[in-house]
């Protein structure tokens, strides 16, 4: 059987990991015998190009990726805005897409796919910091800022940088099954691939770190105590503050109320349990501090517009074992 031809499109000031991450996944799968990929990195013009990190790549010309392709991957990076205005490159992507079984983008590579008209009427994602710009420039694209990656038919788009590795593992799983993706993740000493529906960032990364030490310590303490009493009164007592002063200071420094912050943490932890474990919904609700399954169901419906059961069936990856504590375990 002929090797699956993969073309990764680069450009000046591309993000190096957007290119090397997927390339390593495909190369490792080939080396382990799970699939046979022939990967070419290509760019318009000739000669080396500088990445955004200052590394230099030596891609082949676009003509190397002529003929039928299995997978066309368009990388992203600081140079994506300029690349999306390169008419010759965009026209080449537009013409190459029908020659590929599937098309994918990493990070801001979505801007190039959108410029080529490949995302019109489709759901897509990109780096969280670029989602608003993608929505403004291409209103016909249904931009979802939340997921690690999105598949809409034969078009796959991913979030930024390391999410390209998750995307490549998902493409491998689609080709060769979950055990192949698991073996490659293990060989690359990666976390098992994150399911596409997982958020691009955690609550603790998304929210500011409080300036006051008592509040900052409380933020670090909260994720491991979500099943306890996390009322304003209880949290204020732990921070040695009055409830009124605590609530005001927390909102001023963290950008949201204590109750909303706790709700975000509980939702995030519940999603982790549902994505990676087999515990019943009632048990997940108890562990995450919702109290009842019905309370958790209402939270999921309000925030995600999907119930816990449907969320689990939609986003749980078959490569993930039943890690009952809901944390991200590394493969060793």
Structure commentary:
The protein is of the alpha/beta class and 332 residues long. It folds into two domains: 4-187, Rossmann fold (3-Layer(aba) Sandwich), CATH 3.40.50.880; 203-315, Arc Repressor Mutant, subunit A, CATH 1.10.10. Helix content is 44%, strand content 13%. The protein has a seven-stranded mixed β-sheet, sandwiched between helices. Helix 1 runs parallel beside helix 6 and helix 10 crosses helix 11 (243-254). The longest helix has 19 residues, at 258-276. The radius of gyration is 22 Å and the shape is elongated.
Q: Look at the structure and give the mean pLDDT.
A: 88
| Helical amount | 40-55%
The residue ranges in which pLDDT falls below 50 over 5 or more consecutive positions are: 318-332
Work out the radius of gyration.
Answer: 22 Å
Q: Please report which band the strand proportion falls in: under 5%, 5-15%, 15-25%, 25-35%, 35-45% or over 45%.
A: 5-15%
Question: What is the CATH architecture term of the largest domain?
Answer: 3-Layer(aba) Sandwich
CATH C-level class of the largest domain is Alpha Beta
Please count the beta strands (DSSP E, at least 2 residues each): 11
Count of distinct structural domains: 2
Largest sheet: 7 strands, mixed
N-C termini distance: 32 Å
Question: What is the H level of CATH, i.e. the homologous superfamily of the largest domain?
Answer: Class I glutamine amidotransferase (GATase) domain
Given helix and strand content, the structural type is alpha/beta
| H-E order | EHEEEEEHHEHEHEEEHHHHHHHHHH
- CATH topology descriptor of the largest domain: Rossmann fold
Strand sequence of the main sheet, in spatial order? 5-2-1-6-7-11-10
Shape category: elongated
Number of helices, where a helix is a run of at least 4 consecutive DSSP H or I residues: 15
